[in-house]
Request: fold
Amino acid sequence: MVTITAAVARRPKEPLTIEALDLAPPRPDEVLVRLTATGVCHTDINYRDQIYEIDLPVVLGHEGAGVVEELGDQVEGLVPGDHVVLGYSTCGRCTLCRSGNPAYCVHVPMLNLQGNRPDGSSAFGGDVRSHFFGQSSFATHAVVPAGNLVVVPPEVPLELLGPLGCGVQTGAGAVLRSLRVPAGAALVVFGAGAVGLSAVMAGAAAGAHPIIVVDRVDARRALAAELGATATVNADQDDPVAAVRDLTGGGADFAIEAVGKPTVLHQAVHSLGAMGVCGLVGGVGPGVKAEFDWQHVQLNGITIRGVIEGDSVSADFVPQLIDLYRRGRLPLEKIVRFYDLADVNTAMADADAGLTVKPVLRIAEGRT
Ligand SMILES: [Zn+2]
Ligand SMILES: [Zn+2]
Reply:
């Protein structure tokens, strides 16, 4: 048993509270990780606010990076001291897992989104739920299923790598894995948050051209241009569909909807030219409907495709993303701003207000 510090979501839409909790030792297939940093994702905010439902109280956080501290009896292939990125939980046994599509594992909701282990137990022992996305990483330590961990090279700054486990993997994976955007393809990204900008960086690395970014916030469009966008559109000033069709000479080959709004999805679909593919990446609650012109989609052979976690197999894709980072193609430091764990509520507010693209909580003993 270790006593840890964690940010606990106790009531809907209210600030998280920093608390001391007892964390049980890892089970035979689990690992105790001392967290170095953890990203704040809009999904955490949506769970705090109960846009996505989860039983409270819970420790949120699902973009952790840290150091292996203690191994369960059956864990192989890891040693204490390993630097790791914490991915999401999958069952590893269903047809989707076995066919290399773990993001669509039939057990993903049960394993990640209810809090606690599949048997209902919490690593905190009491009523506070653990194992959110298999990790609950708004904390100094987490007990994590060994299969979620991706070992990363110790010389790469660990504090930047947590978002590779969700937001960055989602945006970059949408481009490189789900849509497989080839060199020379016209790509438009709606929404220049962490996921959208990760898609931009991946599009630039893939050689897409042009890369158009649609966003309302001036600073985000400027950052998009720095990260590889060849043109940007202010949706408050210009009609994005007309602008994209103009900039691409008839319509984009690929569109990424990274906002999560029906009106934006409509624009994304209508920005596409013949045989265009739209990836739905933005998160929405249940029951949201969107519409588009049937004939436009049909006559142009357009595909609209849902994307979760960029179709990533974290064990393979996180190392590829680190390789891109090392080659300067995924400059994570340009989208990240650091906060202390104790300032998690400021980090969430800044993300919500669009002031920070990707807040990352730095977690060090004595700093909370
Ligand atoms: Zn599965
Ligand atoms: Zn996320």
Remarks:
- The longest strand covers residues 30-39.
- The radius of gyration is 20 Å.
- Residues 171-307 form a domain with the Rossmann fold fold (CATH 3.40.50.720).
